[in-house]
What we know:
By secondary structure, this protein is α+β, with helices and mostly antiparallel strands.
Amino acid sequence: MDKVLLRKFILQLNKLEGKEYLLSAVAYKAAPTLDRVKPSSLMSFSVKNRNLYEVWERYKYDVCESLGLRFFELKEAKDWKLVLFYNEEMLEKTTVSKGNQAFLKKMGYEEAITLPERLEILKMRFKWMCPHEIGVFLGIPIEDVYGFMQHKGNNFIFCSKYWKVYHNPEEAQNLFECYDKAKAKVIYSIINKDLSDNLAV
Length: 201
């Protein structure tokens, strides 16, 4: 992504407060999900960062309704929360696709018939670790999830800001470019101060 554009975005974002800041930050982080090129996106909220923990608690329903996003709180500590933002239709299709469904069954999801049940199991497993199957929920190709597990995070073809690629790097790169384009679209909307008009459903 263009570094000049990113700097402009950060400057504009830092001028915002409260609900407006939260809306813009979530829109940027979940942009590929908003653009329907990624089933879900993760974001954490902490008291150490503008006290976003409290801002999230206050405005989460309004923000997600404005953006047309579903959310699921995966993990929580006293001053920190991890949230999965998702497109329900896309996440359902992703988790029941043949390869992903077989993998999830191996990981203990055999009784999880519905998407809410799968999310509850994921949340339970997050209590003890960051489970490998989070990759499936985030839309990472199953071959790369297996590759990460097999090589313990090493011996990858290349590493992006999205995930470590072990298989089909050209396809992965094309996907990363789609993610970046979705984020750039959100950046332009925020810089032009028309985020609500462009992204609201």
